[in-house]
Write a structure and sequence with these properties.
single chain, 366 residues, alpha/beta, Rossmann fold, Glutathione S-transferase Yfyf (Class Pi), Chain A, domain 2, 2 domains, six-stranded antiparallel sheet, six-stranded mixed sheet, 41% helix
């Protein structure tokens, strides 16, 4: 799987630019704030029409433009597919594949990518939201049904939260509270199974990578944590739903008192340990970075096992944040698929990878 060509129009700081990437390593260099991350963002959008930097499509459109377009030729299973994403102010995004209108979720599987950015180096030490994003971004690419569930869950959550917050001013809203609670429980039950399965696979793939990375000194553990009443996150959906409803009934009054939703998968987490100790609490900075790198490389291996092809690997200025040992470990494991690496200077990385080099200056690519 690889990006053969991408053309940007009115996207971020790009007016009109077209790039043809090589099948292996592509080094994208240039000073800060020139558009390197914008280019990776455009590539990542092809996985599901969602940005890793913003929730709002309007932010993808150039300041002086009324619309933005991302047009790409993708080689998937030896077949070239042409994908176009169109973002217009005040309108819903449009997705077409080979000229046929599609939904955003239909891009899942057509194009998969693993992104590793400087923020991911803090995946271990950050709050649970960072690890939920890891699960959601990965599973959405592999399972189109999950992306639809996530969208439904977010809408239900927002509506229920609004009811709880406005119940004193609009008490009639409470008549719909139980309906939204039930909808959230049903969505949660299905999403829990997806997340539990993914984390189990991630743990199995990340542990040997981390063992090699640490020179055989550290064991990495990952455990999925969800609603406290759920005893087995791999149980049948009906059983999980019943256990979530038990939690909901026990916390209904607390939700009313707090004016907040307390039951559901919006507080899920991945408990990460190194040699049996909590990585978030006790891991050194070096251990945390090694664990984060291992997890992202494991995500790439899962995609390969699932699709039979390596996903496009996007490394956004992370090598400069790593010491030489960690840099070499990453570079030695990125073979076999297409990789896009951004950096400020190209000489060293291009020499070490043999990659094709692109220079970005003020929204122009050479």
């Amino acid at each position: 799987m690889r990006i053969e060509r991408i053309a940007l129009s009115g996207f971020r700081n790009y007016d009109e630019e077209t790039v043809q990437f090589g099948p292996d390593v592509n080094v994208i260099c240039g000073p800060n704030a020139q558009g390197k991350t914008n280019l990776l963002e455009a590539v990542y959008l092809l996985t599901g029409a969602h940005s890793f930097r913003t929730r709002f499509d309007k932010e993808l459109i150039g300041f002086d433009c009324g619309w933005a377009s991302v047009l790409a030729d993708i080689d998937s299973d030896g077949r070239t597919q042409t994908v176009r994403l169109l973002f217009q102010r005040g309108q819903r995004r449009q997705v077409t594949v080979n000229g046929v209108k599609k939904t955003s979720s239909s891009l899942a599987g057509l194009m998969t990518a693993v992104l590793f950015s400087p923020d991911d180096l803090y995946l271990i030490k950050e709050g649970a939201a960072a690890r939920r994003r890891l699960m959601d971004n990965a599973i959405s690419q592999l399972r189109p049904g999950y992306a639809a569930l996530l969208s439904d869950y977010n809408k239900l959550y927002e509506n229920k939260t609004r009811i709880l917050k406005d119940r004193y001013d609009k008490p009639s809203l409470l008549t719909a509270l139980d309906e939204f609670s039930d909808g959230l429980a049903r969505c949660s039950a299905r999403m829990i199974r997806y997340r539990a399965s993914f984390v189990e696979r991630l743990a199995g793939a990340a542990a040997p990578i981390h063992w090699d990375f640490s020179g055989g000194r550290e064991e990495l553990g990952l455990v999925y944590k969800t609603v406290s009443t759920v005893t087995d996150p791999r149980a049948p959906v009906e059983d999980i739903y019943a256990q979530i409803m038990d939690h909901q009934r026990a916390h209904r009054q607390a939700e009313l008192d707090a004016g907040a939703c307390l039951t559901g998968i919006h507080k899920d987490d991945i408990e990460i340990s190194v040699n049996g100790a909590s990585a978030r609490s006790y891991a050194s900075q070096g251990q945390a970075r090694t664990a984060a790198l291992s997890i992202k490389l494991a995500e790439r291996e899962i995609f390969k096992a699932e699709t039979g092809q390596y996903p496009v690997l996007l490394l956004d200025d992370v090598l400069s944040e790593l010491d030489m040992t960690r840099q070499e470990f990453v570079l030695n494991r990125i073979g076999g698929g297409q990789t896009l690496i951004t950096c400020c200077e190209d000489e060293d990385i291009s020499r070490r990878t043999g990659g094709r080099v692109f220079s970005v200056r003020e929204g122009h690519i050479r």
